[in-house]
Design brief:
A hairpin with a 7-residue loop joins strand 4 and strand 5. This protein is of the alpha+beta class and 571 residues long. The strands form five sheets. A six-stranded mixed β-sheet has the order 7-8-6-1-18-17. It has a six-stranded mixed β-sheet with strand order 9-10-11-12-16-15. Strands 2-3 form a two-stranded antiparallel ribbon. It is elongated, with a radius of gyration of 29 Å. Helix content is 36%, strand content 16%.
């Protein structure tokens, strides 16, 4: 009893230390639980032409040389601008004419085409008067047959698409000479029987031959076409398509060597098409699957989604696709919810969003997906994924429809916290009334009570820091008016105006402004969690033309329990 404090027994000390540690761990856990990591990525539909867009391929210096040599040939061919008949020969024309009469039965209009050949096409110079002839472009005489027969999807599980023998698709036969090309081309166009899907139900098939797939070119749609050309448009487009392909083969072998450009084409085709699905999933699995709570994807093929479900992502995430996904178009939005963050599977409410869209909104099947799910604390969320049309004109109506659906009281969709990953297809320097302006979009979502991952410090949008695309067409594709000069590509990062490059702030993560705030945001166009500004992509290791956007969101909303349903809401 000297008044000195006794030391507490060791067990009590341990217990109090344990309880302090436990409460510290609990508060750390609750702090950790109060963040949500969200990733959005337009993984991009497959492009059939491996040469269409400028790629960044440091490992293959021959690529840039080849593309610049093609550009030079088409801009300034000099002595290379030979007459058509020196490339697509009279002998080839005679063989083609025989097939158009005997196989296709176009005997009534072929004589018209022969006189056009003799008096006009055979004498034209291949670059200045054929490939670069603007009237051929406006009449669609070479681009229409290319579009219809370039890459034909055939029926049957896992069947690879069939490619016309040409430079500008995944055809992997030998194109080392124009003669070898013509033999393969004629067989393809007139002899190759293909089973293709006939109906939208993806079950009905029909057998056809490529020449039968060509459609007449109508003056009513393309007014530059003459009456004579309209009448003969089937054999005429077949001839122009053949000349176009012949010139491409001739040009590639003139500016490069077959054993340089053909293996290069194969390398690109493997990375961007054959291995696109595993490469895309590899980036998600390696870089994002461990941390992400929510992943929204756009333009995903059903093959990619099925593979995600069956792999590591499917073990950790609920994988959602729209009930109305379109197997023929095969560009679908998807939502992946981490099972530990969102224990219940949730339910799809896409219909509630789409039913609020006007008839005019340019939205295709599979573009919109909205899923309602509660997190591990019971807080309801509505997670949505959306792919905008090229000009971004559907983005504003879809945003309004989503917010209206979530605020309404009809059924289960009401009163969730919105997490919205989207390719908004907004533009930094939009054409007024023709394209969605990024700043206007910012005003719109703010007016609906949402904010974005790009406004973390409250200073508003800075479009030049938000760019998530950097792509530009090369000269090796049918629409030369859209080609971007290599010299402009390098300087395009300064603003991209006039360069014909698409360098724009297109991708967003949106959420309720009183519910989350941005702790960290980053972009990725390497697959390594970093973004190289000023580099054109896709690349051999990053298979999309959109960058990934990721954000860690800190929860600042009140977690209201029972009173959620009591909130007033407007239908």
């Amino acid at each position: 009893g000297t008044g000195s404090k006794q030391s507490p027994p060791p067990a009590a000390m341990l217990a109090s230390a344990t309880s302090v540690a436990a409460s510290a761990a609990a508060s750390a856990a609750s702090a950790a639980a109060r963040t949500l990591t969200v990733v959005t990525w337009n993984v991009a539909a497959v492009n059939n032409n491996p040469f269409e867009y400028w790629l960044t391929i440091p490992s293959h210096p021959s690529y840039e040389k080849l593309m610049i040599d093609v550009e030079t040939f088409l801009e300034d061919p000099g002595d290379g601008d030979v007459p058509v008949h020196m490339v697509f020969t009279d002998g080839m024309y005679d063989r083609l004419e025989r097939r158009m009469i005997e196989t296709a039965g176009w005997d009534e209009t072929v004589p018209t085409v022969r006189s056009m050949w003799m008096e006009d096409f055979r004498k034209r110079r291949i670059v200045s008067e054929f490939v670069r002839d603007e009237s051929l472009g406006s009449k669609r005489l070479a681009s229409m047959p290319d579009r219809v027969t370039n890459t034909i999807n055939v029926a049957g599980e896992g069947e690879k698409p069939v490619c016309r023998p040409t430079v500008i698709n995944m055809y992997d036969g030998d194109l080392s000479t124009v003669d070898k090309w013509y033999d393969a081309w004629e067989t393809f166009m007139f002899d190759t029987e293909l089973d293709i899907l006939a109906g939208s139900d993806s079950k009905t098939t029909t057998t056809t031959i490529p020449y039968k797939m060509l459609k007449p070119i109508k003056r009513s749609k393309y007014p530059d076409v003459t009456e004579e050309e309209e009448r003969a448009s089937l054999p005429l487009q077949t001839l122009c398509g053949a000349i176009f392909d012949a010139v491409l083969v001739h040009m590639m072998n003139a500016v490069s060597a077959p054993d340089v450009w053909q293996p290069l084409k194969r390398t690109i085709a493997e990375a961007l098409v054959r291995d696109k699905v595993p490469n895309t999933l590899g980036i998600l699995e390696k870089q994002y699957a461990k941390e992400a709570d929510v992943i929204t994807l756009q333009e995903a093929s059903l093959a990619l989604i099925e593979r995600a479900r069956g792999g590591p992502l499917g073990k950790a995430f609920h994988v959602w696709t729209p009930a109305g996904a379109d197997p023929a178009r095969d560009q679908n939005s998807a939502v992946l919810l981490r099972k530990s963050t969102f224990p219940g599977e949730g339910d799809e409410i896409t219909d509630a969003v789409e039913s609020r869209l006007g008839k005019d909104a340019p939205v295709a099947r599979g573009d919109v997906l909205a899923v309602r799910a509660s997190d591990s604390r019971g807080v309801p969320h509505v997670v949505a994924s959306f792919h905008g049309d090229t000009n971004g004109l559907a983005t504003a109506p879809v945003l309004d429809a989503l917010v209206d659906a979530v605020k309404s009281c009809d059924g289960k969709e009401s009163n969730g916290r919105i997490i919205f990953g989207l390719d908004a297809n907004t533009y930094e320097f939009a054409k007024p009334k023709k394209q969605a302006d990024v700043t206007e979009f910012g005003k719109q979502y703010s007016s609906r009570g949402l904010t974005s991952c790009w406004e973390g410090d409250g200073s508003g949008l800075r479009p030049s820091e938000m760019r998530t695309t950097y792509n530009a067409r090369t000269y090796l594709q049918p629409q030369l008016n859209k080609a971007c000069k290599s010299s402009l590509l390098k300087g395009a990062a300064a603003g991209g105006v006039g360069s014909k490059a698409d360098i724009n702030p297109k991708d967003f993560i949106l959420f309720g402004s009183g519910e989350y705030e941005v702790q960290r945001v980053w972009k990725d166009n390497t697959g390594e969690g970093t973004y190289e500004e000023g580099a054109a992509f896709p690349t051999l290791t990053f298979p999309s033309d959109h960058g990934i956007v990721a954000a860690v969101l800190r929860d600042v909303g009140k977690v209201r329990g029972e009173d959620v349903a009591a909130e007033s809401c407007s239908a």
